[in-house]
């Protein structure tokens, strides 16, 4: 499990960016501890990397949301 700071470092982004995507519902912590620390797994890192790559290509957040929904439906 990765803390939010470890996730940010591995994804080469900021903690604020991760929190932003959490607020948008695009990224959720795998586990939240009693002290409210967020913990993430490899899947979270993969999803964050996907989101960041989409944003670097100029894809809107709304379109990323749609893509994520489609991927979830496709992989069920």
From TrEMBL:
Start and end residues of each HTH merR-type domain: 1-70
Pfam families xrefs: MerR_1
Keyword line: DNA-binding, Plasmid, Repressor, Transcription, Transcription regulation
Domain of life per record: Bacteria
Protein name, UniProt field: MerR family transcriptional regulator
Listed SMART domains: HTH_MERR
